[in-house]
Amino acid sequence: MDNLDxxxxxxxxxxxxxDRAGRNWFALVLVLLLxxxxxxxxxxxxxxxxLKAAVNFMKAEMTEARELRTGEAIPVLRxxxxxxxxxxxxxxxxxxxxxxxxxxxxxxxxxxxxxxxREIYSKARxxxxxxxxxxxxxxxxxxxxxxxxxxxxxKNPSADGDLIKRLGGTPRTLIVSPDGxxxxxxxxAYTGSLKTRVEEYFGFTLPxxxxxxxxxxxxxxxxxPDAKACSDCDVNSDSKGKTQTIDxx
Length: 249
Fold this sequence. Notes:
By secondary structure, the protein is α/β, with parallel strands linked by helices. The chain is built from 6 helices and 9 strands.
């Protein structure tokens, strides 16, 4: 009997130890799962915070752009042309309003809107001075030739104050009076109600934006003729890198 009791005791101890070990493993797995859950939640929270920060940045950028109000003075713009000559654009020393079409060569909607800008240049160039202002210099010369841009293009804009920062997204069209005051501030390609507004402003119909399958949709592989020479304004510049002022007469 004593031997049987001893055997039962050993078996009971072993079962208890195995049960305790099982519970320990279960607790360890539970802790690991909880820890993993905490890590995932932290990462998701950081991702959400990052997304919110990006959204807030975009909202701030657009808010700053909307703060360009009609009637405010547009400062002298320091730019370079396609040949890297330093120039100044003054909107307050001309006898006609200035249209500043602000774009980047990599902006798809800027490219799709080119048909409209060319139409404005063709029909309104006698009443307005029309200038393209690229916020990026990369590939600008080839872009101009590829898309047959026949209005003057400039790049690397800078100005006193925070005007360039407040331009926001592209494309953007600014119309400036002969005394240098902002008349219109249109953001985006000319579609829908904006297209109607632009047409009413100029008094003629625009062709609309190019479709996604058009050569003007941003496909840089299509062969295009060379850009036409600017006949809307004369640019006086020497080869010594001195800053000159665009002749607005």
